Amino acid sequence: MDYHSEFRRSIEQPEEFWQEQAAKIAWFRSPQTIWQPTDNGHGKWFPDGELNTCDVALDANIRAGRGDQKALIYDSPVTGITRSYTYNELTREVARFAGALQARGVDKGDRVIIYMPMIPEAVVAMLACARIGAIHSVVFGGFAAHELAVRIEDATPKAIVTASCGIEINRVIEYKPLVDKAIEESSHKPEVCIVYQRPQATAELKAGRDLDWSDVMATATEVAPVPVLATDPLYILYTSGTTGKPKGVVRDNGGHAVALRYSMSLVYDAKPGDVYWAASDVGWVVGHSYIVYAPLFAGCTTILYEGKPVRTPDAGAFWRVCQDHNVNLLFTAPTAFRAVRKEDPEADQLRKYNVSSLKRIFLAGERLDPPTYEWLKEHTGLPILDHWWQTETGWAICCNPVGTEMMATKPGSATVPTPGFNVQVLDPSGNQSPAGEQGQVVVKLPLPPGCLTTVWGDDERFRKTYLDVIPGYYSSGDGGYVDDEGYVFIMGRTDDVINVAGHRLSTGEMEEVIASHPAVAECCVVGAHDELKGQVPIGLVLIKDGATIAHDELEEELVEMVRDKIGAIACFRQAMVVERLPKTRSGKILRRIIRQIADGEDYAVPSTIDDPAILDEISSHFRR
Length: 624
Ligand code: COA
Ligand code: AMP
Prior knowledge:
The chain is an alpha/beta fold. A hairpin with a 2-residue loop joins strand 9 and strand 10. The radius of gyration is 24 Å and the shape is globular.
């Protein structure tokens, strides 16, 4: 079938379309109802189906004869370890850890927070939760204790699974003190904390609460997957919104399995036995979907890489992994290849390795800038495929549907809407924008399977943020346009979310941290363009009358505060003291104009501005 027919069918006959896709995964009870509308275009997929996500990922592969095939390869240049697990081996580990959790009272529907580095035990813990119907919430290891505390408070987990440390380039980060601090800060206290001890650091265990991973595994018995409803939550993944409180995106079991299985065929054209490598982190949505779940749903071998694109040890790291493990499909963020290109502009490292197994390279997480696209295309000679998605959707909203029909690529475009996603671009009054004209990118409801079902504990926030902005549509928060051939170009966020090295962060959250400094009267954080990381946050700060702190001392303190409260990954390194902030007459800070000034772009002075002279003052600060 060609792309256009496939897309049309997914929109015009969604129930038949998704019923067919649902038949490709293992159910305990096949769904009789495919779509159950609830309200205003929203609803539930496969409401009466029963399955187990871990069964689809592991046991079903064993039943299909893939027990001795590699399921997971762990490649860790920061420790020098490479280890692999067959489907049989991974299933045994997972079933055993599931038993260990169950023995500690963790049951269907209970939450488990996983705060771990990129080690196989993180994957085992996620799949073990799925096996017993517990809801995991993985927190990225780069987040500081306070961020972890906010998530503990919101998800109220029965258990936390962690490791003694993570390993960054030339630096060991002890996790346990962060976990202890987070539990202390949170009013909710988990009953148990299971700690995987790594040789690089030994965590102190608190009697009565903390247990050693190896001890619980030694006494655990393997358990079978428990049936859950398709609509039961599989996981909560917190993502940055426009306020300081992160949103807990809730993903269900059934829609997720069906959508990701379909995506492996359509978006990646992956076959059972293919080696699939998503060079991301299990703490992000890319890691959830394409390190852990989807490659296993499709019977592939997945790679868990504990390293960086550069400096572990050099810019040849990605090519080395591709060669060593015969990677067929590679997926990462453009920033990773910008880092490689910066250190190895002529791609000399690429020529040192045999990467002939590689068929396609996929990029997402931020806009794929045309120079990075061209560089990759020229040096690898492979199809370089941009695709657009979000934590909320869990899989690509726009892609090059290579499994159905490979479309010509256009630099800067994520290609075309993925079947299931009725993507449209609307102007400020909610009318469809003409081809080539920028507007807000939305998806006409219903969303296909696999997308968020609600925000954990706050259905009202879910509706207000995503469904009520333009009734009948999902608001993506991204701006962009569709050209006259139907290609979608995503140009960036229209809200206060920024993208730093493929990591999604909230400027509002940074503002809350900065505003808590005793010398700060008012502040604003914008994402300024950065050659390597795409964007970096820059703070503009107004000092309180009478405060005598030196400007560079204040900057240093603010940088440290953001690092301490949010984490080093925020990359907040610059805070400028200004006399005034540009505002509208109604008092709204003109963030977009500040961003344009920071990027050296032309800007139009809005008629609503309180005092246009402030813009020159701000510009002079950026020129200094
Ligand atoms: N745990 C603890 N700290 C972490 C961390 C983790 N898991 N990940 C990053 N950090 C820290 C880093 O050590 C660094 O700290 P520093 O300021 O003390 O040096 C800081 O956070 C910033 O890290 P990072 O953004 O990784 O910057 P970098 O300069 O070390 O590396 C890149 C730049 C481009 C190589 C790196 O950002 C990268 O690999 N990006 C790809 C991101 C990605 O895969 N995103 C997933 C979306 S698909
Ligand atoms: P996250 O939820 O962390 O995956 O971040 C989602 C955001 O990243 C989107 O809303 C976009 O702003 C941006 N993004 C992801 N993929 C792309 C892409 N291919 N092109 C442009 N922006 C992207």
